[in-house]
Design a protein that fits this description.
188 residues, mainly alpha, 0% strand, elongated
Length: 188
C-alpha cells in the first residue's frame, strides 16, 4: 500500500512541482521528523491492536520516505527530452506521468518496495516484541516469540529467541535477494 501511494504522490510532486510540491513536501517532512516506531506505538495505542490498524499504520508511516525517493527520480526524468516531446505533442499530464515517467522509474519502485518491505517486517516485529501486536500472546508471531524468550539467553537457553530472530532476518534477506534478481531482469 505504501509503495503504491508513495509512488503516485512522488510522481505527481516531481512532475507538477510548484505549489503542489511545496505543500506536500512540508507535510511529508513533518511526518518524517517523527521516529517510525514512536509514531506506530502512538497510533496502535490510540486505535487498538487490530491487524488492519497495524498494517495501515506501517503503510502510512512508510509513504513519506517512498514519496521523496520517487519524487527526486520524477524530477530528473521530467527534465529529459522525451518528456518535453510529449508535452509538445499536447499529451496530458496524467499521460506523461503514467506512460512516460513511470516506466522509467520502475526499477527504483521495485528497490523501494523491497527495502520498505524489510523495514515493515522489522517494524512489525518490533511492535510485537514490545507487546503492541495482537491481544493473544499465543499468536504465531516471531516478534512475540523473541519477546517471550529473550530473558532466557542469560541462562544459556538461547535457541527459543535466536531462531525466530534468524527467521526474521532470513525473510528480509530473501526478499532483498529476490528484488535484486527482479531488478537485474528489468534492466536486461
Amino acid at each position: 500500500m505504501a509503495v503504491i501511494v508513495g509512488t503516485m504522490l512522488g510522481l505527481v510532486m516531481g512532475y507538477y512541482r510548484g505549489w503542489v510540491d511545496e505543500v506536500l513536501s512540508r507535510v511529508i517532512e513533518a511526518i518524517l521528523s517523527i521516529p517510525i516506531i514512536l509514531m506506530a506505538i502512538l497510533v496502535v495505542f490510540t486505535f487498538g491492536r487490530s491487524t488492519p490498524v497495524i498494517i495501515g499504520t506501517i503503510a502510512v508511516l512508510f509513504v513519506p520516505a517512498i514519496t521523496r525517493t520517487i519524487r527526486s527520480a520524477a524530477i530528473a526524468e521530467s527534465d529529459l527530452d522525451y518528456v518535453m516531446s510529449a508535452k509538445m505533442r499536447g499529451e496530458s499530464g496524467l499521460f506523461i506521468v503514467g506512460r512516460e515517467i513511470l516506466p522509467n522509474v520502475t526499477g527504483l519502485v521495485v528497490v523501494e518496495l523491497t527495502v520498505r518491505l524489510g523495514y515493515a517486517v522489522f517494524t512489525y516485529a518490533t511492535l510485537a516484541f514490545l507487546g503492541f501486536v495482537g491481544s493473544n500472546i499465543t499468536d504465531a508471531d516471531w516478534g512475540i516469540d523473541v519477546s517471550q524468550n529473550y530473558e532466557q539467553i542469560v541462562r544459556d537457553i538461547w535457541w527459543p529467541s535466536i531462531f525466530p530472530a534468524i527467521a526474521i532476518a532470513s525473510l528480509v534477506i530473501g526478499v532483498n535477494l529476490i528484488a535484486d534478481s527482479i531488478d537485474k531482469a528489468l534492466k536486461s
